[in-house]
Amino acid sequence: MRDRSPTSPPGLFFFIIHLTELAIPHLEKTKGNIVNVSSIGSQKTSPQVPFYCIAKAGLDHFARNYAALLAPKGIRVNNLNPGGTSTAFISRHGVPQEMEKKMSEDYSQHIPLKRFAESKEMAEFLFFMASEKASYLTGQIINVDGGSLINSPAMKLD
């Protein structure tokens, strides 16, 4: 028997699909839309958290496919893919505060804008994506990452 708990990868996808299916009649009536929060990890490899990245890649593909399925009903589906963002994500996983601070400082050096986003910045993107101002946006994966995905290590040419 497969594990369908909400925290296992198969369970997570079963839950997301089931919840979406339950919401479709209401979304159709209200002209609502779906905005999932994924991660730029869906587009990069990370040996430290490979299953997290795999799950987020699946969520991105879910959004594209469900956008195609639901567009005829007037329901939009999109994903916001944040980069490093100041949240309780790391501390919730038992990482001590001092280590979290060092990790954030080290990782920030690889972000072209040299900082993590604030949660409020991500909330503003979510609000826009769910609003009527984004009424022509569907099936999109929006990366808000301070330039993380365009960062390339400099080659030394000497």
UniProtKB/TrEMBL annotation:
Name the InterPro entries on file.
NAD(P)-bd_dom_sf, Sc_DH/Rdtase_CS, SDR_fam
Q: Example GO molecular function term?
A: oxidoreductase activity
**Does Oxidoreductase appear among the keywords?**
yes
Q: Which SUPFAM superfamilies does its entry note? A: NAD(P)-binding Rossmann-fold domains
Q: Which UniProt keywords apply?
A: Oxidoreductase
The protein in question is named Uncharacterized protein
Organism source for this protein? Panagrolaimus davidi
